[in-house]
Structure formats: structure tokens, C-alpha cells
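From the shared-data thread, chain only:
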Amino acid sequence: MLGVISKPHINFCGVFLIGMVMKFIDEAKVEVIAGNGGNGCVSFRREKYIEKGGPDGGDGGRGGSLIMRADENLNTLVDYRFVKKYLADDGKSGRGADCYGHKGEDVYLKVPIGTVVVDDETGLTLADLSINGDEVVVAKGGKGGLGNLHFKSSTNRSPRQATPGEKGDRRKLRLELKVLADVGLLGLPNAGKSTFISAVSAARPKIADYPFTTLHPNLGVVRVGEEKSFVIADIPGLIEGASEGVGLGFKFLRHLQRTKILLHLVDIFPQDDLVDVVASSVAITGELKKYDEELYNKQRYLVINKIDLVLDEERAEYVDDFINKFKQYDTNTNFDKIFIISGVTGEGCKELCYYLMNYIDEQKIANALPVV
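Structure, as C-alpha cells:
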């Protein structure tokens, strides 16, 4: 992922949190047409003093294939929004004197890492290109036809038979980009996710005092120290029924599937009734389960946001009451570690970012392959 690194946004005792923001096209539909195979040739050897030479018709060349390849230098599918059809060359027909037709050139289509390739007509997933350099043949070129050389036999010395080249594959594809983020932000609209990501990185998503301000995912790269960093994904706010298509967030639930940890941001000082907000916040975790059981079972922590709106002398009691109400509804969130933050003032953000970095490092060590 490429981005412009800005100057440090917040300085925590010499530790800088800097980053980038990325707006991207995360879905596209294209048609791919592989090349047809060249036809086989019917030909006979004719040289001086050789009037009736045997068959020497060459085979047709293979049609070009279309291959998708994951490229770490790309971070968007925007190119596929403007060009909808991709074709590979046909194979050339065979010729006499055992000359085989030239094969059609393969066409490589570069896509960002994290692209899922789906057959739009059958719904079959062809590939999940999650590693740089991963490839998949999305449309295979047709085989070349056979020349009459292949049909010679003891009883047929002069075959006048050849086969045509095969047709190349033709497919309509749907490309879906799942962002590769370490941390995913989960929460109701206006929970303060965009404010938080702007506080800990150089990401500058749109922030306003109305629901669904965020209309597309945003990525923020958070650097903790000189050589340590992680990526946070902020998706549009979820509401109950998101897994069935209600609201905006359902389109982006797939972006949370690759994350290592989920942060559930909730507004501690909602304008509406506190109990209703807590119940609604917990309800969206159920949407994760409906969408993907594995996503629901990811490590998830509660992050109570907007603590700056509560008076200092009332905070302890207010927070305890809030957490107790949350526990009444939620049985899966890890309450052993609860973070109290303010995205506006930066309070608690340093501790949260340190914790996330340590957790991600521990996961990398735990998942590392043993040295043989």
C-alpha cells in the first residue's frame, strides 16, 4: 500500500503515531476472453524429385490465456472500473513443412493483494490472491488444432484431415478487494471511529455530526516507534440487519475478515437513551456471526470513546454503569481489557496503540513457522 507520510500527528513521549489514508475502489466487474487456438494445416511435402511426399501440416498455436497476478504495488481496483473487457491473442494456424503456428501471448492482469476473484455467473470463487505474486488463470486459451501429420497411418498415407483450434474461455468476473489490515474498527454510525483513526494516524476521513458520514473504508497506518507499525481499517458504521443488506456497512464486512483483532468502539455519552445504544451496539456483533462465524470469533475488545464528554468527578461511576449494562447484553467480547479513550483529545490512545502493537507482535511470533 502506498501513501504519503505526513509529519507526526501526536507525540507521546518521543513515540510518534504517523500514517496514511487510502480511498480505494474495492469492487469491479470485468469480462475476460481468452484467445482461440489456431487451426491445424493440411499440407504435403513437395520438393524436387519428390512428387508425392508425406503429410507435413503443422499444428495450430495455443490461444493466449488471461492470468491475474497479485501485485504489492497496487492498492485499488480503479483501473478495472474504466476498462471492462480484456482479450488475449488467438493462436496462429499451422503451415506446411511441419511449421507449427505461433501461440497467442498471455495477458497478465495485475490486482492488489487481497483480491478475491469470483465467477460472476456461477458465484464460484476462483482464487483468493492474498500473497504478492499469487497467480490464477481466469480464462484459459484454446488448444491448437492438429495438422494432417498426426493422421498418417499405414492405411492412410495421404490424410486430408486436420482439426480446428478450440475456443478460448470466456468469463464474467467479479473482483472483490479485502483490505489487509491488522486492526478493524467496529461500531455504530457516529461512534467516533473516524475521529479515532484520525487521532492515531495521518488518515483524514470525513468527520461530521450525523450518521453514515463514512461512506467507504479508510486505512490508517499507525507507526509506534521507529520500526514498528500496524494498519487500522475504518469501515462505514454497522446497524442491526447489516448482514442482510441494511445500511451501508454490509458491503464492507469482508474487509474485517483479514484483521487480527477487532476494536468495538462505543459512544459513552450518546444523545439517545443509554440502554438503547448499548443494546444496538451489541446487536451489531450478532451481524458478524450471521455474516461469518470466524469473523465473530475473532479477538475483540471494547473501546469506550468520547470520555471527554463526561465530567471528571462522574467518570468512575458513569463508566462502571456503562460497562455493567454492556455486559448484560454481550457475552463474547473480552472484558478483561477495556480501553477508555477520547478520539478528540487523544486521551488513552497511546496505551491502546501500544497494546495493539504488542498483541500483533505476539501473534506474529505465535504463528511463525518453526525453524527446521
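The longest helix spans residues 274-291.
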